[in-house]
């Protein structure tokens, strides 16, 4: 009887709290985004931003929680219905970024933007902040350890870097490179390491672990 393999739970979130400001028609839209894993954390973050920007006309909010954004909520906070919170949440849904809460603080500049203008401004504010914010991938990786001679190290290291894999090297009598590999790629990577080293690399598959990997901007 074959043992079923559990699917990999993988999601992208922001690495840390991040803020970006956007100005349109003299209105300031200050977007603050924060990683959160529970609704309690999201609400605490929203409360903190409300306190910081207590004098703003609006502090509109949205959050998405869970690997597949199972929990979602948004608020227009006094803006016309559907012009702030919902567009903000739609941006989160479109990007797939989760375990995150976002507050867009608006200081009114005296020029009305209209419903369409508000939707565009709130959407753009969140999209641009998400684009600029440092992000990280939460996923599962299999540890593949390759033991090689020093003469092979330069070529193997370049290969691992070209594959954009995270790794750690330990130097002793030989070099042990522990590579974090997507489970579906283990067989391919192992074969390519063997081919590159003409069979000289000793490859050992270690445990799979949950990891947090920085994503390139």
TrEMBL record:
InterPro entries: EFG_III/V, Impact, Impact_N, Impact_N_sf, Impact_YigZ-like, Ribosomal_Su5_D2-typ_SF, UPF0029_Impact_C, UPF0029_Impact_CS. PROSITE patterns: UPF0029. One of its GO terms (biological process) is regulation of translational initiation. Gene3D superfamilies: 3.30.70.240, Impact, N-terminal domain. Residues 26-130 form the Impact N-terminal domain. Signal peptide: none annotated. Residues 65-86 are annotated as: Disordered. GO terms for cellular component: cytoplasm. Residues 147-199 form the UPF0029 domain. Belongs to the IMPACT family. This is YigZ family protein. The lineage of its organism: Bacteria, Bacillati, Bacillota, Negativicutes, Veillonellales.
């Amino acid at each position: 009887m074959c043992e079923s393999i559990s699917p990999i739970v993988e999601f992208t979130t922001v690495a840390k709290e991040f803020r970006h400001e956007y100005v349109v028609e003299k209105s300031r839209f200050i977007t603050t985004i924060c990683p959160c894993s529970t609704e309690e954390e999201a609400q605490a973050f929203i409360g903190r931003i409300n306190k910081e920007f207590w004098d703003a006309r609006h502090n509109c909010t949205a959050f998405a929680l869970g690997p597949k954004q199972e929990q979602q909520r948004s608020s227009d906070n006094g803006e016309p219905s559907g012009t702030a919170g919902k567009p903000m949440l739609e941006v989160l849904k479109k990007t797939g970024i989760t375990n995150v809460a976002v507050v867009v603080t608006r200081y009114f500049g005296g020029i009305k933007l209209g419903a369409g203008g508000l939707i565009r401004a709130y959407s753009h504010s969140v999209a641009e902040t998400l684009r600029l914010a440092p992000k990280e991938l939460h996923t599962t990786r299999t540890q593949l350890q390759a033991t090689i001679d020093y003469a092979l190290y330069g070529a193997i290291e370049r290969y691992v870097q070209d594959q954009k894999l995270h790794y750690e090297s330990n130097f002793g009598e030989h070099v042990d490179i522990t590579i974090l590999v997507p489970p579906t790629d283990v067989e391919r990577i192992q074969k390519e390491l063997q081919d590159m080293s003409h069979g000289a690399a000793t490859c050992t598959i270690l445990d799979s672990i949950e990891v947090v990997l920085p994503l390139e901007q």
